[in-house]
Amino acid sequence: MFSLGPFWQVNVRTYIRFYEEPAVYFLNVYTNSRLSVLGARCLLSLPYQQASFDTSTSGRRTSFRMESTVGEPSRRFSADVYPLSGWFSPENHSLENWLTERYHVYMVKGTYIVKATISHMPWRLSEARYNIKQNNVLEVTPEISDPLAHVASPQTTYVYPPSIRGRYV
């Protein structure tokens, strides 16, 4: 088990079930932690990329900008986020709980399906609204008329050694 210090991250992921176990499958992860990139890519074959982050806060608004110049084209994401509520823990069986309380990550490493287990305290969330200024992280960004958005409090997450769960052919 290991833990890294605080770092910023923007991730694109999907939610999966493998052998009836809820998990996350990362499509891309951008972070400012070189150690996270090295460990995730070498040990877990996760699609982590180095990125720079700038943040500023004014009142309740937090503005942040992410840029990754790895690969072509460079990837950028910037937004203003406005918390709308106090901190809360998602209730069991709520959508917020379903989205945040995942304790396994799956990845494909060569011809193997690999699982890494993670642990953390339950997420503390605040309802939020946002204004995306720039986003080319996804090739296609769906238009959502009533988006669900939350801000999460800082979280320490522990990653346990991975295990092989199957073959990918």
TrEMBL record:
Coiled-coil residue spans: none
Source organism of the structure: Lentibacillus halophilus
PANTHER family: DUF2071 DOMAIN-CONTAINING PROTEIN, DUF2071 FAMILY PROTEIN
Superkingdom of origin: Bacteria
One Pfam assignment: DUF2071
The protein, known as: DUF2071 domain-containing protein
InterPro entries to which the protein is assigned, alphabetical: ADC_dom_sf, DUF2071
